[in-house]
Specification:
Blueprint lengths: L2 H18 L16 E16 L2 E15 L5 E14 L7 E11 L4 E12 L6 E15 L3 E16 L4 E18 L4 E12 L2 E16 L4 E12 L8 E17 L2
Length: 261
């Protein structure tokens, strides 16, 4: 195998790893657990360009998260958008994006209800597009000054489409997750680890699994640096095969916020 072919395969692996991990949205890594902050907006931007003996590769990734609380601080509206463009000289890769909206209402200090809608498109995956709607409960199991633990359960109805067999699939899924957050003083380094498990109601052997570990290092009150580890696994795709991916990434983030008042 030539060096050029090896580099091409490596770039394809990087692109697949980046986009495949977007197949399952982890809203937990972007939530802001604040008492009086009503509005928060986070933006992440990263790009890559390389030229190896004439083999060029370009990738840009943009992510935006917005969280808005009601005046009584009991209702939360969250919007997460993500867009990735990846191209090389010899291969044109399709754009990949998703949009996720979630509504959260506090019933008691322990118990919350949530509803959400999501839309995404991705030419590289077996599932080229997925649209879903769902709702469920969220429980705050541990709430200390620097440690939080949440557990959630939800029902999802999703419509998946694939160009390979030109068909649509209508699924009822169960979604459960556990999310752990720790803030380490004195520099307030934040660690968030989340596990998702999403099987079909009529076949628990058909499931999706995601683990995400995110570590955020504050630089200033507005800027931060973060590292991210993703692992994604789909036990049965519409093509009847398995898909999995792992990814490690690093980036910078910007945060804007305003207090209650």
């Amino acid at each position: 195998m030539t060096i050029r072919s090896t580099l091409t395969l490596l770039l394809i692996f990087i692109i697949n790893g980046t986009i495949l991990s977007q197949a399952l949205v982890n809203i937990e890594g972007r939530r802001r657990h604040t008492d009086s902050t009503r509005f928060v907006m986070d933006g992440n931007v990263s790009s890559t360009y390389s030229n190896n003996d004439g083999l060029t590769f370009f990738q840009i990734h943009n992510s935006l998260f917005t969280q808005l609380k009601s005046k009584d601080l009991n209702k939360i509206y969250m919007l997460l958008g993500d867009y990735t463009l990846a191209r090389s000289k010899d291969n044109d890769f399709e754009n990949a994006w998703f949009l996720h909206f979630r509504y959260n209402q506090e019933i008691t200090d322990l118990f919350r209800i949530e509803t959400f809608v999501q839309s995404q498109k991705n030419k590289i995956l077996d599932v080229n597009s997925r649209n879903l709607i769902g709702g469920g409960i969220r429980m705050k199991l541990i709430s200390k000054e620097n440690v939080r633990l949440y557990w959630g359960n939800a029902y999802m109805y999703e419509v998946e489409a694939t160009d390979l067999i030109e068909d649509k699939f209508y699924n009822h899924r169960y979604s459960t997750y556990v999310s752990f957050t720790a803030v380490i003083p004195p520099n307030n380094v934040k660690i968030i680890n989340t596990l998702y498990y999403q099987p079909l109601f009529n076949d628990f052997n058909d499931y999706r699994f995601l683990e995400q570990l995110k570590i955020t290092f504050p630089i200033t009150k507005r800027f931060n640096m973060f590292s991210l580890f993703d692992y994604f696994y789909d036990s049965i795709t519409p093509q009847g095969r398995k898909q999995f991916s792992s990814r490690i990434s690093f980036g910078f983030g910007l945060r804007l916020s305003s207090k209650n008042g």
